[in-house]
Amino acid sequence: MKINIALIRTDGQTQPRERLDTNVVSDYAEMLDALPPVTVFREGNNYWLADGFHRHAAHVKAKLEQISADVRNGTVDDARLFAAGANAAHGLRRTIADKRRAVRIVLWHPLAEDWSDRQIATHCGVSHTFVARSRLDLNGAVVARSDTKPNPEPATLPTDAVADPSSGPPERPTAKTELPKGLDPDVAMKLLAAIAQSDVLRRLKLDLDAIARRVEQCRENTAARQFPFQQFVRPFREVTLYVWNAEPFCTCPEPHAGQPGCRLCASTGWLTRGAFHNSAIPKDHKQACWFFRDGDWLTAEQAGEL
Description:
Blueprint: E1 2-4, E2 8-9, H1 22-29, E3 38-43, E4 46-51, H2 53-61, E5 66-73, H3 76-84, H4 96-107, H5 117-124, H6 128-139, H7 185-197, H8 199-217, H9 229-245, E6 248-251, E7 270-272, H10 273-276, H11 283-286, E8 290-293, E9 296-299
Helix pairs in contact: 1-2, 3-4, 4-6, 5-6, 8-9
């Protein structure tokens, strides 16, 4: 069926790729009639894009008002989980970063909290060892899941998952290319400085998630049978999500970004992940944000955040 492109939402963190390929978008824009429908999940008046971000961008580039879509009923969480496995067998070949992003979507997903590494691997089209390495990146330690033997030893928090307060100051990330036209150098430097300092948030996230998963391991211990695991683990995951949304994410799009009086960024020059995905920020404002990914400066469209 055809639906109005303006109804489709791409701000629900359903993008399974690290970034959009502008060359592919341009190629698709010249062959729109041959493209398969995109997949969206309808939640009330919201149509969450779950598969077909390059196709959607191509239609936007061609300034079309409608697009063919496979419309399914479901929530934004359903769309995220579907998206994580959508590009495994079709579309532009995924990069390692794309695969890692898809796996992380599932690792953080509430509907997949009990999935084993092999289940996640099957869903995302990767190996179970790739999932284990991705979990290591997130948690600081590979934690046993239901497809592994339970650890008979008492669960302890791994030392490499805990922030080391004695470590030196983090290095500021450096760009591979010059600043793009239109990006204020002062604002760019403020974002890079914030990213460098955000290591403390990343470590806090690892600590919280490692504790939660270690507690889950105790389920196999008969002595802990009466322990309310879910009531304990869920708050940890909620707090971890708050920390994740607090990380520096992109530059502030306001003309006076980083200056006293800027209400959007509180004079910092940058927005958190949670602030950027706030539905109250107009889409045209989000289009003016810049993202720093893998040493490159990307627009919101290139970063797949629109």
